[in-house]
């Protein structure tokens, strides 16, 4: 009986260690982006029942080097895909977000990957902030 408990404890520990390693890889990826820019939300597309979707945005300050994500994907081990922002054909930027339903047209986003932070402003006031590593789309293994 005690050996079963030991095996269960080891399995639980292994799960949490793996989850921590996955989170660390996401944080590393975000830190390597070197993003520091501002966007204005032009439209929101919700495609999931839990509010996930994407934000169609216009760049309002700074520069966005989208291609760095593709280069970083070659260096990660646990994720087969990871992305935060894409360039649309019309020149706007698309940000995937697991809680896109919280945003409104006209919201301003301040993106700083060194701090792993998205600050969301509405009518000049901070509405909320979230971690980039928590909001981007990923696929494991």
Report what the structure shows.
- By secondary structure, the protein is α+β, with helices and mostly antiparallel strands.
- The protein contains three helices and nine strands; from the N terminus they run αββαββββββαβ.
- The strands form two sheets. Strands 4-5-2-1-6-7-8 form a seven-stranded antiparallel β-sheet. Strands 3-9 form a two-stranded antiparallel sheet.
- Strand 1 (about 35-45) and strand 2 form a beta hairpin.
- It is globular.
- Mean pLDDT is about 80; it is low at about 10-20.
Strand order of the largest sheet: 4-5-2-1-6-7-8
Beta strand %: 35-45%
Rg, nearest Å? 18 Å
Extended strand count: 9
Show unreliable segments.
9-19
Summing up helix and strand content along with how strands pair, one would put the structural category as alpha+beta
Largest sheet: 7 strands, antiparallel
Global shape: globular
User: How would you spell out the order of helices and strands?
Assistant: HEEHEEEEEEHE
Proportion of residues in helical segments? 25-40%
Could you state the oligomeric state of the chains shown?
A: single chain
